[in-house]
Design a protein that fits this description.
By secondary structure, this protein is an all-alpha fold. The chain has two domains: about 55 residues, no CATH class; about 250 residues. About 70% of the residues lie in helices and about 0% in strands. The protein is built from 13 helices and two strands; from the N terminus they run H-H-H-H-H-H-H-H-H-H-H-H-H-E-E. A two-stranded antiparallel sheet has the order 1-2.
Length: about 325
Amino acid sequence: MMIRAGSILVITLAIDLVVRAIGSRALAVVRSWREGVEQGPRPSIREIAGERWRTHWTRERRRLVLVGMVCFYITYVCYRNLKSNLPFVRPDPDRAPGEVKALLFDRELHVMDRVLFFGHDPSDVLHGIFGTEYSAYVLSQVYVTFLPLVMIMVVIWLVWSRNVSYGYWFVTSQALAWTLGTLSYYLLPTLGPGIQYPSEYTDLVPTPTTDLMESIANGRSAVLYDPTVTDSLNSVAGFASLHCGITLLWALMVQYTVRSRALQVVFWVNFGLTVIATIYFGWHYVADDIAGIAIAIVSFYLGGLASGQKFDRGMHSHPTTTTSKVPVER
């Protein structure tokens, strides 16, 4: 993951300096040609990139990128390793001697789902509403897009946030959410209905999401029951839904720190579709999604306080740190 993160960061830096400089130079040439006015000597691409480095890539920005990337990387690696070892740390106390069996609460959460939906399985309700073919492809794309976006969104906020404190807010909230999510796995370990009760999802057409579920289920079995496997991780843990939690964090951060109304709508729609997808494909129980949403709200608020944000009415905020240009009453 570190190599992937470094690659994304290098590409981002190239876009921000080189591509931006080339674009600015090209726009200046086009503007001069359209207006028919010679504007005199234009700054070179190197000069434009140098000016961008001086004005945007300040010491504070560079420190944010370095600290943010390292802290998020450490958090995410710990999350993956702790998640992988969950079945061994919390085994079933009723297992037979020598048996490898994880403690699971799938039955209890499955019963709760049926109670909430008046005796019906939530996935059956969604399959009846949306169907099991065309909607499956759309929801699958939304669900699997989450994976590459995790690191991309971190880099975007570290590099391009309007205020440096917004970058700290984003990465702090992310670290808190992944940490609290890991804790929830250990408090209430589950597999998720799609793995524990696969017969309820046989009507779904094959999609990248169903392939992913099959892959991680096989990976879990290999980690638990094949002693020769040493280079694989267990990626199965249901409670809480960090897909819901992290996508809600993205939507909240866009709502509070980005001025584009279109982007705000896009990220809220993405969150809503992700919630539907988690139940539709059987990744999570309803309680998992509720827990993920709670984790996101807590992480968002604590991350805001830690990074010096002042929350205003109407889902807005402004920073109170030294990086802010907003005057704050003493």
